[in-house]
Amino acid sequence: MDITTPSTELTDRLTEMWVELARDQRDYGSHLLGPENRAVIRETVVQRIVSDNLLVARQDDAVVGFVMFSVDRGRYDQDVTAGLVENIYVVPAARRDGVGSALLRAAEERLVDGGATVIQLEAMAENDAARQFYAAHGYAPHRLELEKSTENDTA
After folding, report:
1. Which of 17, 19, 41, 70 to pair with 25, CA 20 to 30 A apart?
2. How many angstroms separate the Cα of 11 from the Cα of each of 1, 15, 45?
């Protein structure tokens, strides 16, 4: 397996993989709409490739996964510099082959090289497999996002 920075020639393939990621996450309660965001994510993929914030995993010349990441340069002063792992996806046929671990490790290395002193990511609360994967790689809960619907089903 090779982890590399892709060329923009892979933009459409990576966009479709992101759409699949968004579709998969709906099973865990995500509100993100995959196909409806195709144009926006396509632009994001190009930006990430150009800024060297996207890596792909290849097995036998086939792209089997990707990770997007960045160093948070937020507007608030903090006592840490956060590296953000924003999206990680592995095609179903390549899962449990170490692809996700290799992508995560490569993103972490790039983030540390970019000045990150902590690395943050999000996982859907209901996605036990993702939470277990991240826990196995040393990630622990730091913040908890809560939500409630504004719709009143008794009206």
Report:
1. 70
2. 20, 6, 6
Instruction: Note whether 114 and 48 are within 8 A (CB).
Output: no
**Distance between CA 42 and CA 77 in Å, rounded?**
31
CA distance 23 to 21: 5
For the beta carbon of residue 144, count every other beta carbon within 10 angstroms. 6
Q: Which helix (H) or strand (E) holds 88?
A: strand 82-90
Residue-wise pLDDT tens digits, 47-82: 999 999 999 999 998 999 999 999 998 888 999 999
* Number of separate helices (H) and strands (E) present in the chain: 4, 5
Q: Which amino acid does the sequence have at 40?
A: V
**Size (the chain), residues:** 155
Report d(CA 88, CA 66) in Å as an integer: 6
